Amino acid sequence: MALNLLSSWLLPSDDEQELAYEQPEQNSKLIVTEDLNNAIARCRRRVKRISEDCRKRNRRFRDLEFDLEEDQQCCLYGLGGGLANEENEPMDILRIEELYDNPQFMIDGATGEDLVQGRLQDCWFLSALATVSTIRDLINKICVDHDPVVGVYGFIFYRDGGWVDVIVDDLLPIYAPKYEDLPDKEKHYFRSNKALYDKMARRGTKSLYYASSGTENETWVPLIEKAFAKLHGDYEALNHGWTCEGVESLTGGVSNCFYLHDILDKERFWNEELLKLKEGAEKDRASLLLRPWCFRCSDNLLRHAGLWEDHAYSIMEAIEYKGKRFLKIRNPWGKGEWTGPWSDGSKEWTSLLHPTDIGHKFGEDGEFIMEYKDFLSTWTYVDRTRLFDDSWIVSSLWLNVTARSLPCAWNYGDVSYTIHVDEDTPAVIVLSRLDDRHFYELSGCYEWSLDFSLYREGTDELVATSTHERLWRRSVNLEIDLEAGNYVVHARVDRKKKLNAHADLYHDRASDKEGMMPGVHVRASQHSLSVVRKLESSWDIRKLGRKWAGAYASRSLARNFNPERYGDAIPLDDAIFKGKNLAVIQQLANMSISGTRSFVSSPIGPTPSVALNGFPTRSTLEQAPAKVVGLANEYKTDMHDHPLEQQEQGDAATKHQSFKCNGCGAYPIVGTFYRCMECAEYDICKKCMTAHGHQRGSHITLRVDTTTEAKKLKDEVSFDLKPVDKQLTGAST
Question: What family is reported (predicted)?
Fold first, then answer.
């Protein structure tokens, strides 16, 4: 697992700002990291180059990397193939000009009313878009550039501590098949008139298979959803998620999720947080932007007063009028509303309080009004994301670390970070894992929970701990005012096996549950070895290669990443090929890893120092081509690679009771065997490993020689850690 520590600090003076880096437009509400300007500039260059090339060739843009028409299976579905059948896949692919009479990217700006969910279970992402759209011009900053004539669109998203640019074409999936493919009986419904059929079934926003805009002829909604799907490898990867993580991907903000019954003072919550939704949007005050809110209904009801369980909604506005408190809430489906008090057409509305008085209108559009007291008694939890403007600076450091064997004490000691603060300053410290959505099927068989404690260096004074609100989330954080000095962050990791309700990799599409991850993990603990092998054998090798490439590219962000262990599975930076022949490239290949960011890029803000496994009681990864790990190497580790120390060799006749070879079935295993660190309780004897290996050498394995090592071996796994720290006010670090 990879952990990252992020630090944000308010810029001190104008002179120091210029020395740090050139700032983009003031108060952008997109977190300003070193590569924000680079991502924007790169995105614009790519759009311009594609536009010029297409005009020269008299062709519209067709995206080789994400071609929905020519490579539909790869673009739509993950490794398991999704529900790839005639009833659950688009019937055709059309360009925007074929769909709309007068297509426009945005009409009167981006609003929450524009968002209508399609067949994809991505309510979490659309709710995130709805809340972000309430901030003036923020969607325009994410949608960097486009040329609708040739059909090229450029977007930026925030992932794993940096900004990534994504380019897509304007090919979109639709429900209706071609007229020629209709049965004669259905053709008769349209009077055997192809033009009539196309107009009624294959044109307009209603024909789109996935998300669409509620405003006819508006195109930004399906295009940004397509770009987000491309970022994560396929549309299926967007099924299920947490809305706050969607807001983070759009803005780089920092999220908290808390239960409503945990709120201490409901009056203070209304005045200091909910009311500032509108205040933050109008005044562009970053310190008040606690605005993106999403929530779900009570867990014990499938549907209550028109509201669905485990479905994400967005709070668009908090309103006080004539002594009453209201919340304007939106369902990303574009339909399905609250039917309780103050719902559309309810008896509470009178001539004394009309919907227009609070900026509301009746209609099945997914937007509804709730009184504050009903809100508190109806919803379970709320997601809140804090946004940052360009007055903040950020420092971030990723590390690959190793967890201890289970069962073990739940202790600190896996990793620590030291932060230096020159001046008193507000800060946000975040500890995070990698975003594994784009390679979820390959992410291992465990769910992880993180927390950390903050100490003054050299003292036993506990300054604060990370805020605990929910378990098994991607990150935890702490907002705090720090005095000048040095601080130590100690991280702690917990884990449990992933439990899934289904026996295969496919989704249960009967509901749209917020928070569930895409797909069912192939290494889910209930799967038998035969089921695992059957599932893996059905995977498309080409798609698998892309998934592994994405996983390794993300892991390469860690400062202590070793590229030599992954060989051809690692994607190289495109820049390495520019103007160089293969002889030169061969010398540089091992120095460049992954997409748009270097895995050793310098942080903008204060650089935290790091100690990994600060006492000699941890196993250490063997940096060897065979990806085999010595289980009993007990020595202190740091950020550098270590040579293997001499290990105790086991007797070839040693019997390891309770261990069975998953390759040949030998029980007990005799002599040396290997435990896969990425599969659930998968052991393989030396004979099988020598004969045919395991997972083509792509998985890291632990070598077990002695009975002592075997006794220690319960659930040794490798994981990546990412810490994060953000601060506000004039700290020169």
Answer: Belongs to the peptidase C2 family.
